[in-house]
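Record type: monomer structure entry
Structure origin: computed from sequence
Chain ID: A
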Amino acid sequence: MSVLDAYSPSLLDGLPSVEEAHCRFQAAGGINAIRDQLAAAAAKHTSCEHFGIQLLHRHSDLDEDEVMIGFGRTVLPIKRNDIDPTQLDKVYANSWAIDPTSGDFVPVEFNMAGGGSKINSAVDKALFEDVAQVLQHHGLQDLLGLALIIGIDHNDIGLESTHGRANITIPSKMLSKHVEAIPVMWRLVIKS
């Protein structure tokens, strides 16, 4: 069984643009409105250091047979049938959204690297359930999701930029200081 089996592009296709998602999230109070509840949910799980809260947004239209897969700092749609079956164990989920039918987190974006099957099996279902409860309680289940942040340099803020159908994250230090950016990810930090 592949991690791609639980995937459907229809969930991604229903997401708002990053600008619309940002406006709706800010109107609901932004990250400060849920920070304490998220911290309390995260505090119960040591795996929380590997996950962040992500502002869900649409990059481009996807065909029913496409999946968003990241390679380094670039994410682009790939036809599922174009993925070599011998490489499927390298594919792992790195972004999840709440399925409106089941209420469970399901993968919506993926990455490809050695050890993908180990990462897939390390997902903390109890953490996902606790975070889902917080998001659903605040009516944010269609705006926020979870993202894997293993291997991300937390001192280096990345800025997403869409080019055609590819989404590229570049280090913010490469750009001039006046560039406007919309925050799309926050760490699940345990408050002390």
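Annotation 1: Residues 159 and 181 are 7 Å apart (CA to CA).
Annotation 2: The chain has one domain: 3-187.
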